[in-house]
Amino acid sequence: MELLFVTVIGAALALGVRYVVPGRHAHGLLVVPLAGAAATAAIWAICVWIGLPFDGGWIWVIALVGGPLVALALALTLPKRREHADAQLLERLMKPGATAKA
């Protein structure tokens, strides 16, 4: 049950990350929150696997800090990669006889 709680809280924190970091126009609405939720759940599972107790405070701190940090890294990386990919596609499309194939 704790895994469900921590995943939902991690998704909510990652949703906050989405609205704090600039460049959210370059990715989908749920990309950052879902990545944060998945990272939070994975970190929780790893912490359980290494032996941290469910009711301990450190497992919550590690999972609820690590998940949103992954979401933050993704939110900072995606807009730059999107702009670069869009510029490459535009350059390719501007050539005579070009098609939109990726």
Beta-strand content estimate? under 5%
The largest sheet, given as strand count, sense and whether it forms a barrel, is: none
Structural class category: mainly alpha
Identify the overall geometry. elongated
- Indicate the percent of residues in helices: over 70%
Please, what is the average pLDDT? 91
Using only C-alpha atoms, the radius of gyration works out to 18 Å
How many individual β-strands? Answer: 0
Order of helices and strands: HHH
Residue stretches low in confidence (pLDDT < 50, at least 5 long) are none
Output the number of helix runs.
Answer: 3
The N- to C-terminal Cα distance equals 43 Å
List the helices and strands and how they pair.
Layout: H1 2-20, H2 31-49, H3 57-94
Write a brief structural summary.
With about 100 residues, the protein is mainly α. It is built from three helices and no strands.
Structure, explained:
There is one protein chain. The chain is an all-alpha fold and 102 residues long. The protein has helices at residues 2-20, 31-49, 57-94. The termini are far apart.
